[in-house]
Design goal:
It contains 13 helices and 13 strands. It has 360 residues and is of the alpha/beta class. The two termini are 34 Å apart. Bound molecules: flavin mononucleotide.
Length: 360
């Protein structure tokens, strides 16, 4: 039991899910909240958790997954929580409202969430303004790119490239999101030839536009592909110049849920504990195929240090969480970071990079 799980979470869960989300993000965007978060127990800096991944240095491997701070309004708060990196977005080039509400549902008995936001975005310029107001931002920042709902897949690359052009000054890395289930047809961009062409265009533009730094481009994949399709997508992404893979986005599967049918049956992507086995399996499959050629960011159902350690042993160089933060609260980041250090000590390992893929 923590103050969050005994007091804060019940109060937030008494509210409509999206309202609770809006209030939390609005609070986290305020300086007083950032100062208050600094009082939370922090994990001590631990050199064994520091790594170079896709040519970037990370102080610790625990990141915030895309979707929680879509508009980049709470960036300083994520640093205060102790995240090693943060993914902002999904950002679409032009503003769009996303799907009608309700579009966010909690499944407490499953420690899960279903969402069908559909890329509600203030657009690339709006996010640029938000990030400019938040500088300097301590941890590494990734920008997750999506296409506008009205843009056909044939012209999707123009959308992704447009956002790169606007947001490159703020990005340590970009993520090509082709795996959200909530934008009709988006997942078709995971098909080999389409994905290779898309990634090539994003990588080329990211290289052209900045002489100051190389911005790695990652691709975020769905957990709902067969292993053969997953590997086909990833090979295509790497041929197109991707520097790494984020595995995975939310699932459209609903197997084994405890939630009542009217909630479990909501359309959208499922995240949290029920996704864990699928996302871990995807990491193993990917690591067995690509090894250390392309780093994997493991995401899906991570709530504890054991979950994070297991995911890294399954091949992930870095991990991310979203649903775990909603259920466990802000202290979870320090608990996972500290717990990873404790597991290294237990196993007599001197650097986290030594355990990556150890179980594969
Ligand atoms: C409410 C919600 C919104 C999300 N929005 C996005 C998004 O905009 N872009 C994206 O790539 N992933 C999005 N995701 C997926 C997460 O980044 C992550 O891949 C997924 O939730 C699995 O991690 P988790 O089990 O730790 O939540 C969203 C997830 C949730 C729960």
């Amino acid at each position: 039991m923590t103050v969050y799980t005994s007091l804060v979470r019940p109060a937030l869960f008494a509210l409509d899910a999206e309202r609770a989300h809006e209030l939390t993000i609005a609070a986290l965007g305020r300086p007083w909240a950032v100062n208050a978060l600094r009082w939370l127990p922090r994990a001590p800096t631990d050199g064994r958790l520091a790594q170079q991944v896709f040519g970037l240095s990370f102080d610790n491997p625990v990141g915030l997954a895309a979707g929680l701070d879509k508009q980049g309004t709470a960036a300083p708060a994520w640093a205060a929580l102790g995240f090693g990196f943060v993914e902002i977005g999904t950002v679409t080039p032009r503003p769009q409202p996303g799907n009608p509400r309700p579009r966010l549902f909690r499944l407490p008995d499953d420690r899960a969430i279903i969402n069908r936001f559909g890329f509600n975005s203030v657009g690339a310029s709006g996010v640029a303004a938000n990030l400019a107001a938040a500088l300097p931002i301590a941890p590494r920042i990734g920008i997750n790119l999506g296409r506008n709902r009205q843009t056909p897949n044939e012209q999707a690359a123009d959308d992704y490239v447009r956002t790169v052009e606007v947001l490159h000054p703020y990005a340590d890395f970009f993520v090509v999101n082709v795996s959200s289930p909530n934008t009709s047809g988006l997942r078709d961009l995971q098909e080999g030839r389409a994905l290779r062409a898309l990634v090539e265009q994003v990588v080329t533009r990211a290289r052209e536009i900045t002489t100051r730094k190389t911005i790695p481009v990652l691709v975020k994949v769905s957990p709902d592909m067969t292993s053969a399709d997953l590997l086909g997508s990833v090979d295509a992404a790497l041929e197109g110049g991707a520097a790494g893979i984020i595995a995975t986005n939310t699932t459209v599967s609903r197997s084994g849920l405890r939630a009542p049918a009217h909630v479990a049956g909501e359309t959208g992507g499922l995240s949290g504990a029920p996704l864990k086995a699928m996302a871990t399996g995807a990491c193993r499959t990917l690591f067995a195929h690509v090894g250390r050629r392309a780093p994997i960011v493991g995401v899906g159902g991570i709530f504890t240090a054991d979950d994070a350690y297991e995911r890294m042993r399954a091949g992930a160089s870095l991990v991310q969480l979203y649903t775990g933060l909603i259920y466990e609260g802000p202290g979870v980041v320090a608990r996972i970071v500290r717990g990873l250090g404790e597991r290294l000590a237990r196993d007599g390992v001197s650097s986290i990079s030594e355990v990556i893929g150890a179980d594969v």
